Amino acid sequence: MNILILGAGQAAAAMAAKLRAQGHDGGITLIGEEAAPPYQRPPLSKAYLLGEMPIERLTLRADDWWTDQDIRLLTDTQATRIDRAAKRVETSAGLLPYDQLALTLGASPRRLPAALGGALRGVHTVRGIADIQQVQPALTPGKRLVVIGGGYIGLEAAAVARKLGLEVTVVEAAPRILGRVAAPETADLIRDLHQAHGVTILEGTGIDGLEGDSHVRTVRLADGRRLPADLVVLGIGVAPETALAAEAGLTIDNGIACDAQGRTSDPTIWAAGDCASFLWQGQRLRLESVGNAIDMAELVAENMLGAGKDYAPKPWFWSDQYDAKLQIAGLNAGYDRILTRPGETARASSVWYYRDGRLIAVDALNDARAYMVGKRLIEGGRTADPARVADPAVPLKELL
Ligand SMILES: Cc1cc2nc3c(=O)[nH]c(=O)nc-3n(C[C@H](O)[C@H](O)[C@H](O)COP(=O)(O)OP(=O)(O)OC[C@H]3O[C@@H](n4cnc5c(N)ncnc54)[C@H](O)[C@@H]3O)c2cc1C
C-alpha cells in the first residue's frame, strides 16, 4: 500500500514514523512546500527567535533517518491538486499516486489586507523558519515593535523582543489579552509579567491600519492614537489550510472535517494536526498544538492500517515568556467556576477550571507540580474538591 502525506511538518513526521513502527512496509512519501525537513515550530517564538537555539535543533529527524526508514521526503515541493477519482496528487514535482492519502497541511497566519498596510515592509508573521529569518535582523535594541494581537504567539514574540532590548507595545482588540484561550485570572498573571518587564499592553484597542512609505512607520489605532513603529509582528491567529481539500470536494467544517477516527468525507483520505477538525464527545474540535499534531497523526497512522480506533485527545500546551513557564492541561471551554491556587514560591500560581463540578483544565504558571497533578486528574477523568485545591495547606499530591 502506497501512502502519500501532504505537508511535511510536526504531524507528518509523527505519522510517517508511526506507520513504520506499526510495520507498514509499503511506500511512504511526504510532500512539503518548505525548504527545511520537518521541524518543530514552538521555538520559533521562543529560544530560536531569541537566537539561543541553533537551527539544527529545530529539525525533528536527522537527514539519514528518512533514508534509513525508506521514507521519501520531498521538500520545496507544493501539492497543487488532489484528483480523487484517479487517486493521485498534482505537485510541483509531478503527479504522485496514492492508495491512502493524509492531509497534514497545518495552518496559515492571518495577515492584514494590503489596504490596511499589511503589505508594507517591516510587517511580520511568525509561522515558519523563513518568517524568523526575515524578522530576526530587525530585532535590535531601541527599535519600536508593535505586536498586534495578545495571544500566545504575539506575547511570546513580545517577551523575546523585550529581552533583546526593543521597546514593545502589544495591541489587543478584545477587552483583554488571551481572551480566546484563558480565564481573566491567567491573563492577569501574564499581563503583570509583561508590565513588570516594561511592555505596554493596550487592551480593547483595535487598529485602523498601518502607515509608512514602503516600510511601516506608524500603527493607527481605532481610537485615533498613532503609535510609531519600526516593525510590526502580527499575532492575530491562524486559519487552517483547507484550500486543497475544499477544491477536491471534501467537507470543511472549522478545518478539514474528520470523523472520530481521523477520516475525511472520502474514506481513503485522512487528516491530522492544525488543519483537521474531528468529532469528540458530540462536538467538533480543532486543536493547534504539538501534542494534538503528534497524537492525532499517530492515531491516523494506526487507523490507515486498520486499527479502527477513536481519537481521545489529551490536550496540553505550554508557553514560555521571559523566564516564566505557563503549562496548560485540558480544555477550558464552557467553564463555570474558576479558582486560583498560590504556588510554593511567590512566582508560582495555578488556575483551575471546573464545569458542572468537574475539573476540566489547569493553567499552571511556574508550577510544574500543579500542572502534573491537574493533568493526571483530567486525563484520568477524575476531579478534585475545589475547596482543597484552593487551600495551599493541602499538598498537591493529596489531590490525586
Ligand atoms: C511560533 C509558533 C509557536 C508555537 N508554540 C507552541 C507551543 O508552545 N506549544 C504547542 O503545543 N504548540 C505550539 N505551536 C503550534 C504547533 O507548532 C502546531 O500546532 C503544529 O506545528 C501543527 O503541526 P502540523 O503538522 O499540523 O502543521 P505544521 O507543522 O504547520 O506543518 C504543515 C506543513 O504543511 C506545509 N504545507 C501546507 N500546504 C502545503 C501544500 N499545498 N503543499 C505542500 N506542503 C504544504 C506547510 O508549509 C507546513 O510545513 C506553535 C506554533 C507556532 C507557529
Describe the overall structure.
With 400 residues, this protein is of the alpha/beta class. It has three domains: 3-108 and 238-304, FAD/NAD(P)-binding domain, CATH 3.50.50.60; 111-234, 3-Layer(bba) Sandwich (FAD/NAD(P)-binding domain); 323-399, 2-Layer Sandwich (Enolase-like, domain 1). The chain has ten helices and 26 strands. It has helices spanning 10-21, 47-50, 63-68, 129-135, 152-163, 184-196, 243-247, 290-304, 368-379, 386-390; strands spanning 3-6, 28-31, 72-74, 79-83, 88-91, 94-97, 100-103, 107-109, 123-124, 144-148, 167-171, 200-202, 207-212, 216-221, 226-228, 231-234, 238-240, 256-257, 269-271, 276-280, 283-285, 316-321, 324-330, 337-342, 349-355, 358-365. A five-stranded parallel sheet has the order 3-2-1-7-19, with helices on one face. The protein has a five-stranded parallel sheet with strand order 9-16-10-11-12. It has a five-stranded antiparallel sheet with strand order 22-23-26-25-24, with helices on both faces. Helix 1 packs parallel to helix 8. The radius of gyration is 22 Å and the shape is globular. Bound molecules: flavin-adenine dinucleotide. Flavin-adenine dinucleotide binds at residues 6-12, 31-34, 41-42, 44-45, 78-79, 104-106, 126-127, 153, 241, 244, 273-275, 288-291, 293, 317-319.
Low-confidence stretches: none
Tell me the count of domains: 3
| Helix/strand/pairing category | alpha/beta
How many distinct helices? 10
Radius of gyration: 22 Å
Rough outline: globular
Strand percentage: 25-35%
According to DSSP, the number of beta strands is 26
